[in-house]
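Lecture notes, unit on protein representations.

Consider one protein chain, 437 amino acids long.
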Amino acid sequence: MPTKPSLPEVVAALLRRDPVVLCTRLALTHEGVARLPIPGRRKFWVVSDPECLHRILVTDATQFDKGGPIYRIIADALGEDGLFTVNDKATWHLLRQIMNPAFRRAELRTVIELTADAWRSRMDAWDLRGPIELFSELKLLSVEVLMRHALGNAVDTAELTQLALPVFDGMAGRIFLPHWAPGASGYRKAIAALDGRVKSIISSRRDQGTEAGDLLGQLMTATDPQSGHRLSDRQVRDQVFTLLMAGFDSTATVLSWACVLMAERGDQLDRLRTEVANVCADRTPTLEDLPRLVTAQALLQESLRLHPAFPMFFRNVKAETQLGRHRLAVGDQIIVAPYATHRDPARWPDPAGFDSGRFAGRLDHEQRAAYLPFGEGKRKCIGEDMATMTGLLILAMLAQRFAAFRRPVGHSNHTARYAMTRPSRDNARLILTPIDE
């Protein structure tokens, strides 16, 4: 007679299947702070309550760092000195100073123009006689734009994509699996392969002995104003890895879900097409046009609410503290769950329903506090403006070219897979009808 699985075994199975769903259910049924029933001395907490998250990310951020076992797993891939993983305050401040110029408005213009050219080329190549795998197309676009912006035109983005894919997908699995679980060896080999390629790009640039205007050139020539030291090749490598992993699936996930939602609500695409026609007719939208696309902004914001690019991220407890009714010990791990926060019925009417109209006006105070698709505080995503502007551009260009989106027969509805992001399992396959048909 088969034995009944224990609670930890059930939890482990649910974590492997879809940790986002499990963590969301726990958080929303336990007043926004819940313990994951995972055995061991160290406790794991899921937090979705906005007030607690504000403490973790803003007011008491020094008590919650990026240490502990979860970030060790992430740092195995991204490196300990990447902007996303670094814990040392001085190093983070230096890296942020170096990285900031690449994400300012002057650089956004270059990124928008690069994105427009690359997206137009991708759409021109589509065979519209069958469904288009929009998530895959958007992911390839994101990698191409990010790597061109960061590394220049000499890199092979297709090669980098293939090398990055098993690293990105494997990272999520390692977080919720023991270190001895099957696949660990293949994951380490995938990291080594991508690591070798990125190091060769850096070495080649060093050998050229010439400065370039891209981010890699800035990273390699920047100096610490206090010590005069430059970043080591390892630190440069960590920034490249961080950019690649942060942008690999994120924008593509949000935009592909937005297109799926438009396929299910045809009126959304109609309104978007009307707005784009009024703002820029049939010419490619510019950086100045994008803030005027208020319908597109509301659509993107609602897509980010329902499907934030990173539905969970993590913190380590540095000092004993109280969250809600719970006492957290040093070394406990926190799973910050914006996916759950964005679906809290106490703050969002019909939280699982799609309604871009809720972003047509001003959010109330509680909703503003419960909306954090790019994080919050000093460690908020540096790429927020870039992701938003490129997202608006891509949606506008789709609206200029296509009259309708529809799901093919046999699609997987709203099932998703977790790989740090949470894209649709069927790659958001859509049948696109050109405007001239």
